[in-house]
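Before a colleague's protein record goes any further, I have to sign it off. What it holds is a sequence and that sequence's fold in token form. Would you go through it and say whether the fold makes sense for this chain? The record follows directly below this note.
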Amino acid sequence: MAQLTCDSLTLGYESRIVSSQVSFSVEAGDYVCIVGENGSGKSTLIKAILNLKPPMAGKVTLGDGLTRGDLGYLPQQTAAQRDFPASVREIVLSGCLNRIGHRPFFGQNQRRLAQENMRRLQVDDLARRSFAELSGGQQHRVLLARALCATDRLLVLDEPASGLDPQITEEMYRLIKELNQSGLTIIMVSHDIRAAVRDASHILHLGRTPLFWGSAREYAESDIGRIYLSREAVGV
């Protein structure tokens, strides 16, 4: 059974349609990269999946026992978030909010989970540090650890390497690939098409209507894939 199905979505904002006829499904263990030009609806699609902004038409359905509370989410980072005055432990632990129900405090299980994910992302030695004092790469690791506290099934990432230098970007892609190989389903917005083809199992290329949906190998061999891969190769 599919964990996520998007059926004939129309995406847009302020009555302006940016993409329509968006249909695809995601199975457990898939690694889906969403690519396309700026303004093609990539982040809007992510918000529809998370029920943060409903699509203008069509339907998003979760399956395989998933609920919205089971999804981990790493949004694009803003300047305000980079200066957030909290410790690393507090940031990561906040990812457990959906797990505590109506209780007013985190329990031992949530604290243990936060510690495990800090260790998994190699930021446990930074637990008492202020988030605002960290480097960009360290902050991205902390936020990824936070997202993992919310889920062990499906992780949604919106430009997780944005603003990072090439070396740290590759480290972030490696971490995400390892998470996928451990059994976590990944849905990720990316501008890095070569990395998407290298790492992902499936590619969704958005345009006014979807330009491609299928395996990463099929995308690399498609006309649209060849065009965009060649543009990236020459820095266009």
Remarks:
- Strands lie at 4-13, 16-26, 31-36, 57-62, 71-74, 154-158, 185-189, 202-206, 212-215.
